[in-house]
């Protein structure tokens, strides 16, 4: 059994891209990112210091915020949950460290690297493309740079992280990733897929 | 004038680009217009008087309005990008190569055989078909009636338009880019507020674009162009031209329809190249939608050539098109005089102005005298002449007296204005009649809304600009300042709803649906006094027109007939969309394979490559494999046989995997499941069901105890997402003090079940290093291992009744694991198994499939779990409801097995109450699942049967699809009832 292929399955590694979409948007699938879902069984303030120490970066504590340090990024999902993406080779070590630090699982680290497919969407038309799928933000100013949120885009739950002005990182549940990519492609050219596509 | 054949294009003026001629066809006739024309103006310029036929009597209809308000000009159109089955000619910008056809009239709109209906018009008044088509029955007439109905010419063509959607938020949405809207937007320039200004025309300004008036000491057209440029260059105002706000919804959500038009040429196609559907959420709304002209009711008011006065002015001013060469004006307000002067200035002969008022308030008498325009005051039009085009009108004093016949080929009518309050009314603002304004207005707007300009009642330019500025100031102040309130001043209009004399059957109220005053009289006399009843009985305001121009006149006539005030009668309900929206635009790219989000399993491609016939079960899953048989039935039989005799490989990845962790994880889960999880030891698995508060079963699955603080709940594939939300909801709302964390991780894992007598040997050969012997790894056991750094979870559970293991690995390895299982499994006689075989295998075993074998009334007692419920001492969701009288009664449908004595069972078959009866007769339940079982040797099924468990051995008759099947009620276990195989 070949266990050396990273992220084999779907979207297939060979479809990782980058792909040029319409309106100058470029899409690629990040195959180098793994992630861990943290959920707290207690009020986060009880364990924030320890959490931060082990994670190695300040844990974001307010809605929509993102913390980045070196190759780790933590996204606030809810008052009791965070998504941390790390290089794929760090996932196991981090899981082990948290399991040791919280044996009673007041803070639970869930292996999540395979649950989400990370997409990188860049270009001046990227924001408009995403806005074809839903309200990326209900704030009049839109989603700020280095802010993140969970929302529906094209009917698919997506974690949207605006990393830079024209750079968006999107985490889509892996089972829905292929549909979402097909949707992005079709939306970027303003038309439905032709017969035989999708 | 009359530069083109029989048409009425003016020699100069207008905003059309005469350097860009455009070719088009109408009803097969080649014609020419200019860039900037609408189809309506181009038709008029080409002398087209009849654009269609009315719905009921097939009377000839010409343009009454100039744009969206026109009830007559529905046409079917091919442009370079697609086909429109029905659109108003005034809504469509002209494009090169455009082909339009009338949607009514056969064989043509000018010669329509259906016009014979006019001969029997006295017999087909309002409500005739409610009374007439009663005998021998409606169905006898229905096909004919249906052929006569409908507006439009649909065609099976794929549009090439680019379609987009946009979701957007803003602080202020300004609807309407006339003087008032511009003033509001201008007042917000440079503020911190993000503003969207939407207008349905290509440029801002409305009437200012072609008006000869001055605004702030500048020519109106120059002023509006200047303001548009200033707004377009700002950072905080976004202009959306060519955009109609079609609907207003809860939470200040608006739908907007924007299009981009190409005029086209020999090289590039012309037409609507792109449509963009916006959904905008706005904190504040400035309604500056203005108003439309109201027609007047008089005998013969439907002839081609009779137009709204505002439409005449716009045709002249914007498109340099005259409706005719000799015009008369009929009015009850000062606007009619303005129209007459504009027409005269354009070179038309103005035959007369007929004013219902005895003394016009501010009519420019000197100008009228200078223009030599004859005036009739205190007079009305009592008759018109001409069939496919107006030839003359008869004018008489309203008080009675001599009749004058005025020769004219067009008549401009101005009955006051109707404010466009639709959006506010869609949000629930009740329109109220303002007698001073002579119109329905929305006095109480939704919170955060402001109405300015004509939408709040007729006003002049100065007032519109002041109101726009005042609202902008209030918005900038953040609510500390309130906009100035308008002073109530009487408008110059004098209501004139209908003449006293003449035949009411010739006075048209609704031109599209041929509703006359006579129809309203019938409705009133038959007791249809409610405005909603009036609409439905007479069809007033129905169809594509939706009563834009007809409703107020209809209401007024009804009020007069019933002795009520107009305000007392009220209006019909306003509903979105304000104008038609193409279904393709709403669908956007959600078509074909993108119709709805689909979920694929980690090994999806491997299944397809293996010949799987995929089906959407919420996830796309193999239904059966082509390699296992020449057809579905043969393949399913082969797959079932493999599981019973060797081993089957089934992709179970979609089964839910929710990690429930924390010090109180066990306590938490025990409150959801019927079974007692307090005794579930680490490394063990337990099956159970979950109930809603009413005690009904909504999901089942297994719970795995990994250790004292970590459990994995395994809901069904269909309910995995919901169960995770269900857990979280209860944690947050009811049990916030429990220390528990909920992590849905279904997608992280690929999971394969191997089932059959050779499952253990196959597992052993996989090289996972697991001791899977019966002693160390018994039924309902869980274990974890790591292979080459890859975490592996193994559960011994069974849905088939055979020895079965479920192997879960991170999703990235799903395809490899499936390939590995197939490869290693070959020497064990393994076959891939699809959903159909899997579900039949569980049926043989009598295992429940929630949703299939249960319904919205099923409790755990009904499915044989009474003992488990009774033995659990602690509380769980739904427990209390199980003791309610109905749930605890013996009169319940209970899950039982059914074995066919003769014939084949089918899901959905009804269990008849009496064995010797035929339907119709009472039912005692139904078959929930059924199949032929080779292992059992007969047709078997599960069913919910009244008092089923006390009726073992009883023969029942089952009715299905016209046939009867005899079956015996039996325990719901057909295969290995002692569970020896799964415990092997």
Low confidence ranges of chain A? 1-10
Quaternary: heterodimer
Please count the helical segments of chain B.
25
- Find the count of extended strands of chain B (DSSP E, 2+ residues): 49
Strand content of chain A: 25-35%
> Structural class of the helices, strands and pairings of chain A?
alpha+beta
Short description:
With 198 residues, chain A is α+β, with helices and mostly antiparallel strands.
Structural features, described:
Chain A has 198 residues and is of the alpha+beta class. Helices cover 20% and strands 34% of the residues of chain A. Chain A contains four helices and eleven strands; from the N terminus they run E-E-E-H-E-E-E-H-E-E-H-E-E-E-H. Chain A has a six-stranded antiparallel sheet with strand order 1-2-8-11-10-9. Chain A has a five-stranded antiparallel sheet with strand order 4-5-6-3-7, with helices on one face. In chain A, helix 1 (48-55) runs antiparallel to helix 2. Chain B has 984 residues and is of the alpha+beta class. Chain B is built from 25 helices and 49 strands. In chain B, the strands form 13 sheets. In chain B, strands 8, 9, 12, 13, 14, 15 and 28 form a seven-stranded mixed sheet that branches. A six-stranded mixed sheet of chain B has the order 40-41-42-39-33-43. The longest helix of chain B has 16 residues, at 461-476. The interface between A and B is large, with 66 and 72 residues.
């Amino acid at each position: 059994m070949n266990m050396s292929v990273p992220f084999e399955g779907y979207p297939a590694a060979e479809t990782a891209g980058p792909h040029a979409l319409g309106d100058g948007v470029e899409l690629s699938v990040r195959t180098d990112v793994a992630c861990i879902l943290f959920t707290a069984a207690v009020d986060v303030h009880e364990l924030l210091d320890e959490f931060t120490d082990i994670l190695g970066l300040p844990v974001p504590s307010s809605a929509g915020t993102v913390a980045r340090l070196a190759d780790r990024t933590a996204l606030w999902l809810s008052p009791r949950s965070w998504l941390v993406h790390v290089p794929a080779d760090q996932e196991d070590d981090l899981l082990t460290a948290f399991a040791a630090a919280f044996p009673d699982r007041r803070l639970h680290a869930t292996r999540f690297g395979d649950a989400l497919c990370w997409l990188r969407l860049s270009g001046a038309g990227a924001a408009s493309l995403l806005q074809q799928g839903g309200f990326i933000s209900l704030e009049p100013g839109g989603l700020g740079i280095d802010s993140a949120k969970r929302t529906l885009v094209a009917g698919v739950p997506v974690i949207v992280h605006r990393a830079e002005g024209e750079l968006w990182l999107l985490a889509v549940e892996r089972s829905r990733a292929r549909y979402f990519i097909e949707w992005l492609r079709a939306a970027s050219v303003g038309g439905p897929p032709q017969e035989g596509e999708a | 004038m009359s530069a083109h054949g029989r048409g009425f294009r003016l020699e100069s003026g207008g905003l059309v680009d005469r350097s860009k001629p455009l070719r088009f066809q109408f009803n097969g006739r080649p014609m020419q217009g200019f860039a900037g024309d609408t189809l309506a103006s181009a038709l008029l310029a080409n002398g087209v008087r009849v654009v269609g036929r009315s719905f009921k009597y097939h009377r000839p209809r010409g343009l009454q309005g100039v744009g969206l308000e026109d009830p007559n000009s529905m046409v079917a159109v091919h442009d370079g990008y697609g086909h429109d089955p029905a659109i108003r000619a005034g809504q469509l910008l002209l494009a090169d190569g455009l082909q339009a056809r009338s949607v009514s009239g056969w064989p043509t709109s000018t010669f329509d055989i259906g016009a014979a209906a006019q001969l029997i018009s006295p017999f087909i008044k309002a409500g005739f078909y409610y009374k007439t088509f009663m005998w021998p029955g409606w169905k006898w007439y229905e096909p004919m009636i249906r052929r006569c109905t409908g507006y439009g010419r649909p065609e099976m063509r794929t549009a090439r338009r680019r379609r987009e959607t946009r979701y957007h938020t803003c602080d202020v949405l300004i609807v309407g880019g006339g003087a008032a809207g511009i003033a509001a937007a201008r007042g917000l320039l440079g503020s911190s507020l993000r503003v969207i200004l939407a207008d349905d025309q290509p440029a801002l300004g409305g009437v200012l674009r072609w008006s000869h008036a001055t605004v702030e000491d500048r020519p109106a057209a120059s002023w509006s162009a200047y303001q548009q440029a200033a707004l377009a260059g700002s950072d905080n105002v976004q202009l959306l031209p060519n955009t109609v706000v079609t609907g207003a919804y809860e939470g200040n959500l608006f739908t907007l329809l924007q299009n981009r038009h190409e005029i086209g040429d020999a090289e590039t196609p012309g037409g609507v190249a792109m449509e963009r559907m916006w959904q905008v959420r706005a904190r504040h709304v400035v309604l500056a939608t203005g108003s439309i002209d109201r027609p007047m009711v008089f005998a013969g008011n439907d002839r081609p050539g009779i137009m709204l006065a505002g439409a005449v002015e716009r045709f002249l001013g914007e498109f340099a098109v005259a409706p005719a060469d000799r015009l008369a004006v009929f009015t009850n307000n000062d606007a009619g005089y303005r129209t007459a002067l504009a027409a005269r200035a354009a070179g038309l002969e103005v035959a007369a102005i007929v004013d219902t008022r005895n003394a016009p308030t501010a009519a420019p008498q000197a100008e009228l005298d200078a223009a030599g325009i004859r005036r009739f005051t205190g007079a009305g039009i009592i008759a018109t002449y001409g069939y496919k085009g107006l030839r003359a009108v008869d004018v008489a004093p309203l008080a009675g007296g001599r009749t004058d016949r005025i020769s004219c080929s067009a008549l401009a009518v101005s009955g006051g204005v109707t404010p466009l309050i639709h959006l506010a009314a869609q949000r629930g603002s009740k329109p109220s009649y303002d007698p001073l304004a002579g119109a329905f207005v929305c006095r109480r707007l939704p919170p955060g809304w402001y109405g300015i300009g004509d939408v709040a009642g007729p006003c002049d330019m100065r007032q519109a600009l002041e109101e726009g500025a005042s609202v902008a100031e209030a918005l900038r102040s953040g609510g500390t300042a309130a906009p100035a309130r308008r002073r109530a001043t009487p408008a110059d209009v004098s209501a004139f709803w209908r003449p006293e004399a003449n035949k009411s059957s010739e006075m048209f109220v609704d031109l599209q649906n041929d509703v006359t005053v006579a129809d309203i009289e019938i409705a009133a006399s038959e007791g249809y006094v409610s405005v909603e009843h009036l609409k439905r009985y007479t069809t007033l305001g129905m169809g594509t027109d939706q009563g834009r121009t007809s409703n107020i006149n209809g209401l007024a006539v009804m009020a007069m007939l019933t002795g009520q005030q107009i305000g007392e009668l009220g209006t019909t309900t306003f509903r979105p969309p304000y104008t038609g929206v193409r279904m393709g635009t709403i669908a956007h790219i959600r078509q074909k394979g993108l119709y709805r989000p689909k979920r694929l399993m980690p090994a999806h491609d491997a299944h397809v490559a293996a010949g799987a016939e995929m089906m959407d079960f919420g996830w796309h899953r193999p239904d059966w494999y082509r390699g296992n048989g020449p057809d579905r039935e043969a393949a399913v039989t082969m797959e079932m046989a493999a599981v019973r005799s060797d081993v089957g490989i089934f992709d179970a990845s979609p089964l839910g995997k929710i990690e429930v962790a924390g010090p109180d994880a066990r306590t938490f889960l025990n409150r959801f499941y019927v079974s007692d999880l307090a005794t579930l030891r680490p490394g063990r698995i337990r099956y159970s069901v979950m109930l809603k508060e009413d005690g009904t079963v909504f999901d089942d699955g297994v719970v795995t105890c990994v250790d004292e603080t970590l459990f994995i709940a395994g809901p069904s594939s269909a309910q995995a997402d919901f169960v995770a939300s269900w857990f979280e909801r209860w944690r947050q709302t009811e049990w916030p003090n429990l220390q528990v964390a909920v992590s849905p991780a279904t997608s992280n894992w690929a999971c394969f079940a191997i089932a059959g007598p050779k499952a253990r040997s196959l597992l052993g050969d996989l090289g996972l290093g697991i001791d899977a012997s019966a002693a160390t790894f018994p039924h309902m056991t869980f274990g974890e291992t790591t292979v080459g750094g890859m975490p592996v979870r193994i559960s011994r559970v069974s849905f088939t009744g055979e020895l079965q293991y479920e192997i879960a690995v991170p999703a990235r390895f799903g395809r490899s694991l499936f390939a590995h299982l197939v490869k290693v499994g070959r020497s064990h006689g393994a076959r891939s198994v699809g959903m159909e075989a899997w579900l039949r295998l569980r049926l043989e075993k009598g295992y429940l499939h929630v949703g299939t074998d249960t319904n919205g009334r099923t409790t755990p007692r009904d499915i044989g779990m009474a003992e488990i419920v009774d033995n659990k001492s602690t509380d769980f969701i739904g427990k209390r409801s199980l003791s309610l009288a109905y749930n605890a009664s013996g009169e319940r449908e209970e899950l039982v097995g059914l074995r066919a004595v003769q014939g084949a069972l089918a899901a959905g078959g009804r269990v008849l109450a009496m064995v010797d009866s035929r339907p119709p007769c009472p039912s005692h339940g139904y078959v929930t699942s059924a199949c032929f079982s080779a292992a059992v040797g007969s047709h078997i099924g599960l069913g919910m049967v009244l008092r089923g468990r006390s009726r073992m051995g009883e023969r029942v008759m089952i009715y299905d699809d016209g046939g009867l099947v005899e079956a015996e009620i039996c325990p719901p276990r057909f295969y290995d009832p002692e569970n020896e195989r799964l415990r092997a």
